[in-house]
Amino acid sequence: MDISTPIIFIGIFIIACVSLFLVFKFGIKEKSYEEAVAEQRQQTNALLGVRAKPKEKKSKKSSKKPKDKSSLENDGDEIVETTNTKHVGFKEKPEILNLPKEPSPVKKEEIKEKVTKQEKKSVNLESEPIKAKKEKVKQPAPVTEKIETAAVKHIVEKKEKAVVEKIEEKKIEKTEVTPVAAPTLTVNTAKEKKKKKSEFNTLQQIKKEKLLTEAIEAQTALQTRIREIRGEVQAEKTQQNHKIKSLEELLNTKNIEVESGNNRNQTLQHQLQQLQAKFNDDLQKLVEENNGLVHQKQQLEGRLTQGQDAESMLLQLRSDLQNAQMELHRLNCDLQEVARDRQNFQVESDQVKNINKQLEETRQGLESQITILTKKEEEHKKEMSHLTTNLHQQVEENRKHEHTILQLRNEIKQLKAEKIDINNIIVQTELQTTLAQLDKTNDKNKTLLIKIEEQKAKNNDLRQKNWKVMEALNVAESRTKTVSSSPKQTSVDVLTKEIRLKEQDSQKQFIQRLFPEIEELKSISAKENWQSEFEKLITKHLESIKTVKETTKDATEENLLKMQVANYKSIIDETQQTKLEYETKLEQEKQRNDTLSKQCQQLNRVPSGDTTATIEKLNEEVNRLSELLRLEQTSKNGNLNGSPKEQNYKSTNGIAVIEGTGH
């Protein structure tokens, strides 16, 4: 459409120009110069009854008439000279003076009437082509400059030919009138020669003089008339030149205006193409985003029951998309209206070529329409940018919500999986650690028994020397016996129960921190079936949140989600901090255990006299460390996050306590 419309416009314009040129060239029929002269001669011959000789002269002259201007002017001069010579010769003949009194004025009057009639006819013939030429000038000129120049030249040549023809016709009429008068006079004088030669000589001379004076006056009148005609022709030429120049200027201005209108049409078409391309791109993007949102919606519905919130958000997005589609449809309608306006503008431009007066009015109207269209386009662009920004914001918010939901789901799944794994690992690790510790304690007890037996042997030797040393040894032996005789099963059961209670407490605290709004969780913490009851309360809470979200507005939903996300972020940050603290403490405890193991090794190397003192010191340090660990656990029970890593840390802390008690 964009390329075809200007091509059609140009084709119509060319066809109109060609048709006008053909009509001006072939449609208007005019008499040729030869036909007009032949008609005039026939009329004069019928009236005057001219002989054959002047007819031959006329035919010769008619054959010579279509020559150039210079030849025509020379012929006219020669004809005037011949007429003058004939008049002179007519004076010399005395025979022609014998004319009667009565018939001569009648014939003169008839000749004058015929001459006046011929002059009137010639004047009418002159006026008719001049009028026709003026009417031709009034007709609309063709568009191209070549056609204009050709038409102007053709008109000028025709006018010059018509002027020359008029001059020649008048000269020919003079030449024809004089010889016609001559034979009539000769005939009359021949009849009356014999009767009255002497009487009428004087009268004939007077009449000849009168005729000569009349002929001279007629010649002067004709010359003045010719001069006037030449002046009129020159004035007409100047007027025509001015008119042609004005018409050329008008044509140039019109062509410039038409070119400017075409350029504006092309710019409008280019802008419309760009807008259509932008609209198509935006539609494709919106369709792709809609498909992606629908796919995400299906995934969310299949995975969780909490996807209903996402469904409500997707419904809102669909409504927004429908509104955007409606607006796009409206914009397309506006574009169609713009195209219609453009077509109307083309039709108006075609009409403007034929109507010169309405050019300015139509131009102003088109400029106003163009300004309105530009304003509309700017408004549409602003609306599209606003819609795109809103859509991007909504998409980002949906992504954030989906990301948070997925994180929560993954955390819940990880908690469940880690809970099972941790329980199994804890049981296994506890059994392994307890068995290893028991083995270590047995080995240590064996080594201690061996040392004690050695010391007994030594002490038996020393009993005789110092009874106080004997009492200290008895106390040490009793302690070692109590440590060696402690049952294995009781220690393991107690440790497992303590670890499980600690895990349950940490999980409960984590759930309470996730859902601080549920106050009933605190009352259920002492029961055995606390997990099922927690699940029921959480499901009820989620359902209540859904109902509240359906009733409240979008702004409140976003605020709640943001608050929850901030809460989750704060919880995650706290867990990371506690993780780092526990890692540092574990490293410190490992270092202490290493130092204790080194000290034990050194004590094994120490002589037997100092064993009792070192054992007592070690027991005191172990008791001190266990008390410190308990105090730290009690102080940080309120800040526990329930994450699987913390549970691992707690299990390691429990193992460390067991090791401390074993020592």
TrEMBL record:
Residues 244-465 form a coiled coil. One of its GO terms (cellular component) is endoplasmic reticulum membrane. The chain crosses the membrane at residues 6-24. Residues 633-654 have a biased composition (Polar residues). Residues 104-115 have a biased composition (Basic and acidic residues). Residues 52-67 have a biased composition (Basic residues). Residues 45-115, 633-663 are annotated as: Disordered. This is Kinectin.
